[in-house]
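Dear colleague,

Thank you for sharing your sequence with our group. We've completed the structure prediction you requested, and as agreed, I am returning the results in plain text so they can be pasted directly into your records. Please verify that the sequence below matches your submission; if there's any discrepancy, let me know and we will rerun it promptly.
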Amino acid sequence: MRLLLLIPVFSFALFCSFTLIQGQQPYIGLGTVACRRKGNPKSIRGYTCNGVAHSCQAYLTFRSQPIYYSVSTISALLGSDPSQLAEINSVSLNATFAKDQLVIVPVNCSCASDYYQTNTSYTIHSTDTYFLIANDTFQGLSTCRALIKENNIPGDLFPGTKLTVPLRCACPTKNQTDKGVKYLLSYLVTWGNSVAAISKRFGAPTDLTLESNSLSAQDWIYPFTTLLVPLKHKPNISRIVVSPPPPSPTSPPSSSPSGGSTNKTWIYAVVGAVGGIALISLLLLGILVFRKRYPILRSEKKDDSAILSESFEATGKPEVKNAGEESETLSEIISDIAQSFKVYGFKELQRATDNFSSNCCIRGGVYRGVINGDLAAIRKMDGDVSKEIAILSKVNHSNVIRLSGVSFSEGHWFLVHEYAANGSLTDRIYVNNTDGKFLTWSQRMQIALDVATGLDYLHSFISPPLIHKDLKSDNILLDADLRAKIANLGLARSVEGEDDQFPVTRHIVGTRGYMAPEYLENGIVSTKQDVYAFGVVMLEILSGKEVAAVHSGDKGSLSDVLSVILDADCEEEKLRDFMDPRLVGKFPLELAGFVVRMIDNCLRKDPASRPAMHDIVSSLSVTLNSSLAWERSVTISGDQSFSRSS
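Please find the predicted structure tokens below.
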């Protein structure tokens, strides 16, 4: 009888032993991105200890990025021996790597409890979350669940705290060693990768790589996940196929796959463009000065400045105040305007708008026009617009609406902007809109990233920093591809000094509901008031409600509204109730929770504790990439279980 009872036990043990011998590590995919605090049907903490050895030599891959772009910084981040890292990558100990260069990182992989891992340490920064540490800083080499379990800190992370970071590695199983496999490499999957291309890059048979990850040839792999590559020899950068797999066409053009806080591809383009523009501007300035000083050499042909001057002659040359509070005539301003923008004759604008017909009116004093076959938005304005024009002359970014020309007639200014085919964000996000237009979760995240990138440009790449001061959904325009552009810089202000040296004003302007409390109550001006307004816009994007409707009658601030969600025992249910009802079942709940926490940081009462826009850009870049990967997985599988269960 005892023998009969032992037979099932023995059979089960034999089955488990056979499984361990085969030793395939399951590729979990997007499960590694999740940060849920309650359970998970699949373990995402690491690869199970099913190899022949308790510890072994293993390898990781890492893509260099600021600030981790040298032998010393990468080895320190990942707990690797710098001399071994330098040797395997065929560089010197003090070498640096090009941005996004693939780096092979040797580590000692050991079995800890039930999972293989190699541990490193990391000191928390002010804007860090488990999600960002796992998927941004460590690029997917660790997971949220592994970090939470390893450090037993389920709540907020405090700056200065040192975390233990378990990195994903594994040792070969008997089945693999019998086939000549000596090492396993944890490869970081990125956009456009395939198992076949990755295998070829490292000289591994595709079928063996598929087998090592329990994958079939039809299965998909996703960014921010690791794929085990079986190796028969130690990897060396000189033996790796140099050309990487082509990028995926679905990868967002304005965001970086890693999403690092300083990992902004467009920085270099901006610097180069600004440098080129500056050189050209100096040359033009020299020519203009020469022509003004020696008028006999000037052409008799009327230039743009002359066209505007004639317009002012007919209107009496009214006086305005400039930024230095010194009085000057408009005719003295227009020569500078004409150097930066095309000056249109008023009749040209009349033809473009069918004499400013009501059929061409977009809203208020903004008209749709056709100039030289291209659509344009023509804004009719009164009063002094020299300040806004001066600001726009310094701005050149794809996420800030572009001013292409100006005109003046009968006391009115006309500013000619690029045309945004899909109108304002207001027209798209509010639930009570009845036009049937709907933004998907990924489209909303792309718009949020566009706005954040535009604000980061105003705050960080214009000197002195420029504060919008009236950021709201109505001042965010969407082009034909639903890419966002910040508009209406009429209230924008340049601010000198650091953010801890806030200037103060008694002239409070803006839109209630979007104005930061320190500005509304005390007139404190800083880039952090734009961060607050951005948080409000994000609330509207997620909820589908205007800010006034988001406010609860018995709550004193928007942060209090969010605390009801974040502090609730049933957080997931509260979050679903908060989201735009049109998104129900169509968004990844885990990522939505992460975005709500980011918004909560933006709405903090203390401006100094709000994140900077470049940190927000980093967070949203990772969020967008993860959202696109989730969206693709839902499309392929026809299943939205991640949305329901995450």
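Summary note from our side: The mean pLDDT is 77.

Kind regards,
the structure core
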